[in-house]
Amino acid sequence: MREIVSDQTHSAGLEARTQRALNEEMVVSLLAKGGQYEVRSFGRVYDVDIITETCTCSDWQQRKPDGGCKHLRRVDHEIKQGHVPRPDGRLPM
């Protein structure tokens, strides 16, 4: 289960991957309904499936960390904050 992160959450005390998810420059876009997102980070592009909780990054492929990689966590955060459409494709209110 990924850590719950909001704008009110202070980064101190958050797990390191969650801190990186919030602090690193990333651009998140919905690719397809059903939870397919693209994350652009440091010149690389990763495919994230928020429903199956998978990512194409090496951290996820090699370690499958509890709570997900930083890309999964960032997508989760962006959805919860209403910055990107939800997995069903609906825009945030």
Can you give a write-up of this model?
With 93 residues, this protein is an alpha+beta fold. The protein has one domain. 27% of the residues lie in helices and 22% in strands. The protein has 3 helices and 4 strands, in the order αββββαα. It has helices at residues 16-23, 58-63, 70-80; strands at residues 27-32, 36-41, 44-49, 54-55. It has a 4-stranded antiparallel sheet. Helix 1 packs across helix 3 (70-80). The radius of gyration is 12 Å and the shape is globular. It starts with 15 loop residues before the first helix and ends in a 13-residue tail after the last helix. 28% of the residues are buried. This is SWIM-type domain-containing protein. Keywords: Metal-binding, Zinc, Zinc-finger. Residues 46-80 form the SWIM-type domain. GO terms for molecular function: zinc ion binding. It comes from Halarchaeum nitratireducens.
